[in-house]
Amino acid sequence: MKKIFRYTLLIAASMSLCACVQNLDTMPLNETDYTEDNAYDAGESAYLAGLAEIASYYSFVSINDPGSSDISVKDAGQSELLRQYINLNELSADSFKCVWTGDSYVAELQSDSWTETENAATVAVYTRCMKGITLVNEYLRQTEADKLEARGHGNLQSKVAGYRAEARFHRALFYYLLMDLYGNPPFATADNITGEMPKQIGRAALYEWIEKECLDLLSGSDMPAKGEVVYPRPTKGSVEALLARMYLNAEVYTGTAQWQKAKDAAKAVIGMGYTLHSNYAELFMQDNTETGAAAEEFIFGIEYDKDHAQSWGGTTTLSSAALSTGANTNLASLVGVTNGSMIMPESWDGYHVAPDYVDRFELKGVNWDKTGFGYNRETSDKRAFFYNEGEPEFDVMTAKTGWRCWKFSGLYSDGRVVDQSLDTYKFSSCDFPFFRLAEMYLIYAEADARLNGGKVTDSEAMGYIKALRDRAGVATPEQIDLDWLLDERARELMWEGHRRTDLIRYGYFTSASFPWAGKGGVANGKVAIPSYRTIYPILMTDINANTNLKQNPGY
What we know:
- By secondary structure, the chain is mainly α.
- The chain has a domain at 304-430.
- It is 40% helix and 4% strand.
- It is built from 20 helices and eight strands.
- The chain has helices spanning 11-22, 44-55, 81-91, 104-110, 120-142, 145-150, 157-182, 203-219, 236-248, 250-254, 259-270, 293-297, 314-320, 325-334, 355-358, 437-451, 459-472, 482-492, 499-505, 540-545, and strands spanning 97-98, 186-187, 199-200, 298-302, 351-352, 386-388, 403-405, 432-436.
- It has a two-stranded antiparallel ribbon. A two-stranded antiparallel sheet has the order 2-3.
- Helix 3 (81-91) crosses helix 5, helix 5 (120-142) packs antiparallel against helix 7 (157-182) and helix 16 (437-451) crosses helix 17.
């Protein structure tokens, strides 16, 4: 069973909150409809339900079911925030490719040719982040002390203060995603809603606001510490992890590097009691909550549950989109699945990994002569979950070329797969790691290298890297430089939403000196990408509706 904070168990109450946000002035159509005036009458359960609505917005696409979306896209599954966040950060870089070129966002992202014309990926992430911020702002407005007193809920102020802090973390994270991906989004908080359209404050100013908000959550709020709330609710560790990631990329966002702050924030998270789970594969299995893997290593996770938190995005997509039918059935046999005939719930046959990315892993005995693993898994990096379809050179128009990845698998830790006689078998129960301890180890090491001429000098940093390498079953180099760390991030954090941001920080995303298959629409990728593509365009529908907004340069 999942932990007791199961968002969807509270969804009946949170449905009313979404309706309130969409139209606060609409009177109920019947006596059972909820409005701003009565949505919180139930007391504590209603306030927790409002928080659950916010927390579920990374993975849920509507308040109804996973097949219907509350934003305007043609495919509900493609409207999920996490699914398209991963596409914007991974499909636009070298970590995976997709043969579903009939979807415009796929063709545009993997050829780095998107324009200001909206596609499903840019719409989903931008719209859902902005809507998530709106949900938080309204929640904060409805949970102010005077509102609680007016409802006769003054006795709940202490408990609700913690809920408010968690909501503020989610808002900071939504804003971080917008800042990273879109640069200069419109800015609105519960304090500056005056009836006017929101304005842009600039990327550097937004960075400063997020930093200030996070620091206040760490020291001046009721944000719960690790262990005070059940996984996967955010804690002070989640806030500090967000700061660490943001500081690592501060030079991109503001023009001023913050390497020491990045190192200090990562160290603070490391000291909070998270641990590396001993088995890397179990982090991405269907029972990663039940085994304790997620709670040990995930600093903030996105919950999925085939029975109660269903989505066609997230880890459902990362698993089922990765394999052809042949690969799916053959892999099940190769890994000794104890029941069923496939290792993944379904075979969508879409995602591929080009050889130039696979080459960053230390694979032993690579052999293209027959399909299968394509290398000796026993002696190779344990973080390599690849399958060889038989043709090494990736061709986006040919489904059988390139490697496949099964990191996010349909496996359970006991070797079985989900029972396909169940109505819900197609959905994943694997939680997604938005922040995890391994990333903090890598941030600490990179920040140290940035502070010391490009080489890791800190003995603690070397120890952290050794811990990751030992778990992966590969040797640790005696000397570690920045380029090696970039490759280690590619190995450790594959398909977790980091690659585009990493390449931009290193100056490689737009550079012709760092090619990858299909970069810029060129087969060998030996081409420069215009610098303005380091951020995506603000949605034209938003610009047309709000005269305060200006489009990002280059679009």
